[in-house]
Design brief:
Elements lengths: L7 H26 L3 H17 L8 E2 L5 H11 L1 H20 L11 H23 L8 H6 L1 H9 L2 H19 L12 H16 L11 H4 L5 H4 L5 H26 L9 H17 L6 E2 L1 H9 L6 H16 L9 H15 L2 H10 L1 H16 L2 H20 L2 E6 L6 E9 L4 H9 L7 E11 L1 H17 L5 E3 L2
Parallel strand pairs: 4-5, 5-6
Antiparallel strand pairs: 1-2, 3-4
Helix pairs in contact: 1-2, 1-3, 1-9, 1-14, 1-15, 1-16, 2-13, 2-15, 3-4, 4-12, 4-13, 5-16, 5-18, 5-19, 8-9, 8-16, 12-13, 12-14, 17-18, 18-19, 20-21
Length: 485
């Protein structure tokens, strides 16, 4: 056995670690997304077994992600839970199509500042929403409403014994996750999030705390494949934008995760187009089962690599362990306190905010830092899809501005012609400033305009420079001499 499968022992051990990491996250993401807890397990199972078996990336692990909770919650509120399966199925088919036409590699061209801004915005919305959940209160629908309502929510919580008990469980969960890294190595064999949930459940039972727990329907009871009526929602133009958002954001998160995971090991590199198709196949299956969308998740993937995984067997087996748990021990979920899951999501949301990157970007590339911050604020203030579009528009505008860098150097020796040297890229974005400088040249002296230093001249800039030369020649003593590239 060891000869035919030399890495099997290490992969089995790694799969158990990933299973323990994924279990509380699958349940927590489901609850935060406003869907039955079992649906997160279904997505984790599909991510492990279906996407895990397909080619693409050998070591990254897929499942429900905190990064999509905001989008899922908005979709369920807008179109209802039956439509979620249709949205996820269509998004998966779109991912398959994008992978087929080899668009996977192009996702690496997306500005990193936009992606980090997207994750930061999602993190802020998750934290704000889960603080209400930790206190057993209902969160406002909008991101700004959640943040603005936090002081009032705190006052309400301080006046309620049940809310204070719930907050204590949530805060204790976060504290255990943060402090678990300081425990002995043997204790850390159990992931911090799982240990925090187990301790929260034990404390709630032992102390008789009045906290809400996860509602369990059973695996088969939670799976609700979309019917023909649900697919009729595709006639609604609004749902098409949501499908596009699911596909693009899930793809970007998965492929950026793949790039990060590749830096953690020296095994086979990710084949981006095939990985995009694997993600699409997984999402298509998740949608047909009425489950949550899936992406590759860096937390589980890094745990997989660090646990010693060498082949895709580890991620497939983690899906098998999730399936066995969901089939044999679903009643265990009913013991899970909801504020403990809220604490896990608060911690996950905090980790999505790239504090160090913001500081380093501000020191070295303030334009990129601004894009990151504006993207995050836009997601909180408007919604996720439009916030990402705003960030992309800013990134394109910044790139266009930088690509249009052009310099004008005027040499006037006091006698003879005035020499004007243009270098760089002449585009319409720099035209007003350049024309102002050229218009200021003396009209009673001959002028030589040297364009040989230009790498690129767009049509608008060329036309404007020719027009200026004609006007200056007509008004001056001698015609302008133009030296072209």
């Amino acid at each position: 056995m060891t000869t035919r499968f030399p890495f099997l022992k290490g992969d089995v051990a790694a799969s158990l670690v990933v299973f323990l990491v994924a279990l509380p996250l699958c349940v927590g993401v489901s609850v935060a997304s406003g869907v039955p807890a079992e649906l997160g397990l279904v997505t984790g199972i599909v991510g492990g077994i279906v996407s895990g078996l397909l080619p693409g990336s050998s070591l990254q692990v897929s499942g429900p992600a905190a990064g999509l909770t905001v989008l899922v919650l908005e979709a369920v509120r807008a179109f209802g839970l039956p439509a979620l399966g249709v949205i996820v199925t269509a998004a998966g088919l779109l991912q398959l199509a994008m992978g087929t036409v080899k668009l996977g590699r192009w996702f690496r061209a997306i500005s990193v500042s936009v992606v980090e801004g997207m994750l930061a915005g999602i993190g802020l919305v998750i934290i704000a929403g889960q603080l209400y959940a930790a206190a057993g209160l209902k969160a406002p629908a909008s991101g700004l409403g959640r943040i603005a309502g936090l002081p009032e929510a705190l006052v309400d919580a301080l006046g309620s014994t049940e809310a204070l008990a719930s907050l204590a469980v949530g805060a204790g969960t976060v504290a255990v996750i943060v402090l678990w890294k300081r425990m002995p190595k043997r204790a850390q064999a159990v992931p911090g999030a799982l240990a925090a949930v187990l301790l929260a459940a034990l404390a709630s039972l032992a102390l008789g705390l009045p906290v809400a727990a996860v509602e369990v329907k059973g695996l088969l009871g939670a799976i609700q494949p979309p019917g023909a009526d649900a697919f009729g929602a595709l006639a609604n133009p609004a749902i098409l934008g949501t499908i596009l958002a699911f596909a693009l954001i899930a793809s970007a998160e998965s492929l950026f995760s793949a790039a990060a995971v590749d830096r953690l090991h020296d095994g086979p590199r990710t084949r981006y187009d095939q990985e995009l198709m694997a993600q699409g196949a997984g999402n298509a299956v998740c949608g047909l089962l009425g489950a949550l969308p899936m992406t590759a998740v860096i937390v589980r993937s890094s745990a997989n690599v660090q646990a010693g995984a060498r082949t895709k067997a580890s991620r497939v087996l983690h899906g098998v362990w999730l399936l066995l748990f969901a089939a044999l021990l679903p009643s265990a979920l009913a013991l899970t306190p909801l504020p403990a899951l809220a604490g896990i999501l608060v911690h996950a949301g905090w980790k999505l905010i790239p504090f160090r990157q913001i500081v380093s970007l501000w020191r070295a590339h303030r334009g990129e830092a601004l894009i990151l911050v504006v993207t995050a604020v836009s997601i909180v203030a408007v919604n996720m899809f439009e916030g990402v579009l705003i960030g992309l528009a800013l990134a394109v505008a910044k790139t266009a501005w930088e690509a249009s860098h052009m310099q004008l150097e005027v040499v006037d020796k006091g006698a003879g012609p005035v020499q004007a040297h243009l270098s760089g890229n002449a585009t319409f974005l720099r035209l007003p400033k350049i024309l102002d400088c050229l218009e200021a040249l003396p009209r009673d002296r001959p002028v030589e305009l040297n364009l040989s230093g230009l790498h690129h001249v767009d049509h608008a800039c060329r036309t404007a420079l020719e027009s200026w030369a004609e006007r200056h020649s007509a008004a001056g003593t001698e015609p302008v001499k133009v030296r072209t590239p």
